[in-house]
Amino acid sequence: MSEKRERIRGFIEPGSEIAGGVAGAAVGLITGGPAGALAGAALGPAIASVIERTCLEIYDRASGYRQRVRGGAAAAYALVAIEDRIRQGDSIRDDGFFDSTVARSSADEVLEGVILKSRNENEEKKVRYYSNIFVTAAFDPHFTPAALNHALQIAEQLTYRQLCLLRLFSRPQPITLRGSNYFPDVTKDRMGWETLAVLAESFDLCRMDLIGCYPSDDSKAVMFLSALHDLIPSKMSRTAFGDRLHYLMQLESISQEDVERVALYLK
Hints:
Elements lengths: L2 H10 L3 H4 L1 H11 L13 H15 L5 H23 L18 H14 L7 H13 L5 H13 L2 H9 L14 H5 L5 H15 L3 E3 L22 E3 L1 H10 L6 H8 L4
Antiparallel strand pairs: 1-2
Helix pairs in contact: 1-3, 1-4, 3-5, 4-6, 5-6, 5-7, 6-7, 6-8, 7-8, 9-11, 9-13
């Protein structure tokens, strides 16, 4: 195996602590066959070059052990998901996002952002969803580098539980939620600490314009919320901005168990 491929393998392999078999599959793509998938037709030269450059660049930077685990997992998730979509017949974007005639393509920039934010993320369940931003962008030309960098910035601010809330607050909602606000509970000091925390996280999503409170399923008008006790869980759903982030991060793949665990506090 060449020194370059060995270093890429060394970058990805620690990610198995988070990504499990996905990291093994990614290593197999690198080492399988005479040239490995990164140099072959499975990914194509454009994506292969981006992944090689970014992994090698970040591999050479000093980092702690958990950072290496998270960074390797992010690269593994992206590599395997992209290879899978290509094998299913999806075509990567051809609008210059992967332009290899420049020293640093837009794809290089976005993938570096994904891996660096993953490396520094203490909530390791989020790593897969950072990775999904790059995977989605690799096939959808609607997202400019500026929009993707903004999405990464927003994703970094969210907790994993808030990602679960973005999944929960769909139209229609996957789980039946409370149909009244929390004003009586707050004023009579009857609210549990964890319920208060989930409401606070939901209210933060409202302030970020990722979700809103709508009077009815077919209404486009958003109710004014002055405080978190005004929230009505059954009336909450994602805004257009929230839908975009949900799509980019592929939050539909969050486990039902995790979504139900959050929903318990909103019934």
